[in-house]
Amino acid sequence: MRFLFVGDSMTIGCPGDFTWRYRMWRHLEASFEGPYEIVGPRTALYDPAAGAAVSDAYADPAFPPASRRHLAGWGEGWLHMAPLIGPAVAESRADVLLVSLGLIDLGFYTDADQTVANFAAFVANARAANPRVRIVCLPVIPNIRARDDAAFAAEVDRFNVLLAKGVADLDTAASPLLLATVPDTYDIHADTYDGTHPGPTGEHKLAAAFAGALHGAWELGGRYAL
Fold first, then answer.
1. SS3 (DSSP) at 162
2. In a domain, 223, yes or no
3. Tens-digit pLDDT profile for residues 88-116
4. Helix (H, G, I), strand (E, B) or coil at 47
5. For the domain that residue 79 is a member of, what is the CATH number?
6. Is residue 225 part of a domain?
7. What is the DSSP string of 57-121?
8. Which pLDDT score, from 0 to 100, does residue 113 have?
């Protein structure tokens, strides 16, 4: 089974991060029964000093290069990934997409209605490449801008409602769609290093959200263990 991680800055990570992708790799190594592969066209971390995804300085240098693969980008959202996902799925033959997007879209590019339309386009393009692809989506998670900007917080809440409805409407037996649950314990002060990007505990909680969805709905992998 091939897993493709899709996301924005919270998924690609920076030099010195473990990333939630690393936490998922550790989880799959410990609990997934049968062969699996992490796939994707990219492997690097985003280096703010270079202004580009050029770093391989993961916090754990033992993170295998093949398991670092992803489709994530700093400043990229549903808007950017919708046209990229079809070719990425076709090339990698991905079976399961684990997707964390939306904050960048709402923060810089699109409103909730436009963002959920881009989500629908993403799903359609992924299915065009693999009609049996499974997709797990994470809602927009707590972040410092939503804490400080009431209008933005309202738009995030509206998008998360629309996303949940979109997941339910587009779910099919052939190509299941699933919405992961952000833990109630996720705390921007304790679980991020800047109010937005996850630190070690936040990485674990995001990985646990995906792992819980995979295990609970499809019995893929075990229960997440810190």
1. helix
2. no
3. 999 999 999 999 999 999 999 999 999 99
4. strand
5. 3.40.50.1110
6. no
7. --SSTTS-GGGG-BEE-TT--HHHHHHHHHHHHHHHT-SEEEEE--HHIIIII--HHHHHHHHHH
8. 98
